[in-house]
Specification:
By secondary structure, the chain is mainly alpha-helical. Helices cover 65% and strands 5% of the residues. The protein has a four-stranded mixed β-sheet, sandwiched between helices. It is elongated. The protein starts with 6 loop residues before the first helix and ends with a helix.
Length: 292
């Protein structure tokens, strides 16, 4: 008989793993900068870091404070008015009472997929968006579980967390690009040690963005397990989310073409179907939930 999993332990464990993954992105950033400084000079390295920080912070701060608006606009979602979607509003209101969270703004995405996402920098600036397919194909308990999952993302401040990761990912990408482009204007020199470090720097500059992207996707997958556990915490019933995930798995709606890759990690399941690695497998998530 398999050992039962307590949802509180699952939330704590996955948050710890996510912190470790985020720290690994930071280590890659420092390592890349250190090798560049050895290949050129410390002064050159500091210039790169300043430029990277300014670009990354400006871009991320704008995105961060408008994340909910950007996400809603990117999928062309429309506001869900209470008179038109009474059950949708009723379920969210019940869950916010159970979780102690403020009620987020509710939106509808015009898609036949069973899907949903949450966005916003904090619970006071949060939105939840569900697809028309989710409202049509899920029963009351299943829809409640999906909405509880999205509230789990809001309660865990996932957007704030993922924004911090995005800052570091952006810095790695910018540093890598500046370094590679600067080689065209470098004289190189005859110092063998500098040539070796330059070769290492080139390899890191090419591989680092790929590695941090993989880490970013891994963090996104870990956050899904945390949100699943939070949904059980709010509803005290894993069965609803298990059935919802099974319906998502068996759903034959076509992959979304209008969804941006940047927004895809926000959804409860990958909107592109089997493509991409933004989410853990549905089978794995169901297995974990069945042990709660």
């Amino acid at each position: 008989m398999k050992k039962r999993i307590d949802f509180r332990d699952q939330i704590t464990r996955n948050k710890r793993r996510s912190v470790f993954l985020m720290f690994s992105v930071f280590v890659i950033l420092v390592l890349l900068g250190y090798v560049i400084s050895l290949a050129f000079s410390p002064a050159y390295f500091f210039i790169i870091m300043i430029v990277a920080i300014l670009f990354s912070m400006s871009y991320i701060l704008i995105s961060y404070y408008n994340s909910h608006r950007i996400a809603i606009a990117s999928v062309k979602a429309t506001k869900a008015y209470k008179d038109d979607y009474k059950q949708y509003h009723s379920l969210v209101e019940g869950l916010t009472l159970a979780s102690g969270l403020p009620k987020p703004e509710l939106y509808i995405m015009h898609s036949k997929q069973i899907n949903a996402f949450a966005s916003g920098r904090d619970p006071q600036h949060a939105v939840i968006c569900v697809t028309e397919g989710a409202l049509e194909k899920l029963d009351k308990n299943e829809l409640e579980a999906v909405l509880a999952h999205e509230l789990g993302h809001i309660a865990s401040y996932d957007m704030r967390y993922m924004t911090l990761v995005a800052v570091m990912v952006g810095m790695v990408a910018i540093i890598s690009q500046i370094f590679l482009r600067s080689l065209w204007f470098s004289s190189g020199g005859n110092d063998k040690s500098k040539i070796i470090f330059m070769i290492i720097g080139i390899a890191l500059a090419i591989l680092a963005p790929i590695v941090v992207y993989i880490v970013q996707m891994s963090i996104s997958r870990k956050r899904e397990f945390v949100a699943d556990a939070s949904a059980v915490k709010f509803t005290r019933y894993p069965g609803g989310l298990i059935r919802a995930l099974k319906k998502i798995k068996e759903d034959h709606a076509p992959p979304e073409k209008k969804v941006s890759k940047a927004v895809a990690p926000l959804f409860i399941s990958n909107p592109f179907g089997a493509m991409g690695k933004t989410h853990p497998s549905l089978d794995k998530r169901i297995q974990v939930l069945e042990r709660m």
